[in-house]
Amino acid sequence: MKEILEEYALIAEIISALAVIISLIFVGLQIRSNTKATQASTFHEIAALDIHLLLSLGSSKESSRIISTFRMNPDALTEEEHNHGFHLFAAEVRHVENLFLQNENKMLSKKIGNLENH
Questions:
Q1: By C-alpha distance, which of 84, 86, 116 is closest to 101?
Q2: Which UniProt keywords apply (predicted)?
Q3: Which terminal CB of the chain, N or C, has fewer other CB atoms within 10 Å?
């Protein structure tokens, strides 16, 4: 009787070990899937920010003129235009800086990291 119980215990241990292995495989697949979803979400957020920034810069002829002049010849702007141009330019710089830092810290996949070259 004791031998039968030992055999059942051994079978139970083997089944438990297999269940743990299967669970770990399942968790690994879930993490991989979640990573891809997170990367897709990050890519979408970066693209949305790019679009928003570009639309903001081109929202009016005046804003477009100010940012272009600010980049090329900021002294040609009035004080008010210079301040406006500075804020538009600072938004651009912050966006590129954010992409750079995320890429440097390996928070972006290689495909997403190439966005800074746009």
A1: 116
A2: Membrane, Transmembrane, Transmembrane helix
A3: N
| Predicted TM-score (pTM) of this structure | 0.53
Q: Sketch the domain layout of the chain as residue ranges.
A: 2-117
The number of residues making up the chain comes to 118
Structure tokens at 14: 């083997």
| Helix, strand, coil % over all residues of the chain, rounded to 5 | 90, 0, 10
Report whether 23 contacts 29 (CB < 8 A).
no
For residue 13, give the amino acid letter. Answer: E
User: One-letter amino acid identity for 9?
Assistant: A
Six-digit token string for 104:
């440097």
Q: What average pLDDT score do residues 102-117 get? A: 65
Which among 56, 112, 116 is positioned nearest to 89, based on CA atoms?
Answer: 56
Of the chain, the end-to-end C-alpha distance in Å amounts to: 75
Which residue bears the tokens 């081109």?
58
For residue 11, name the pLDDT band (cuts at 50, 70, 90).
very high
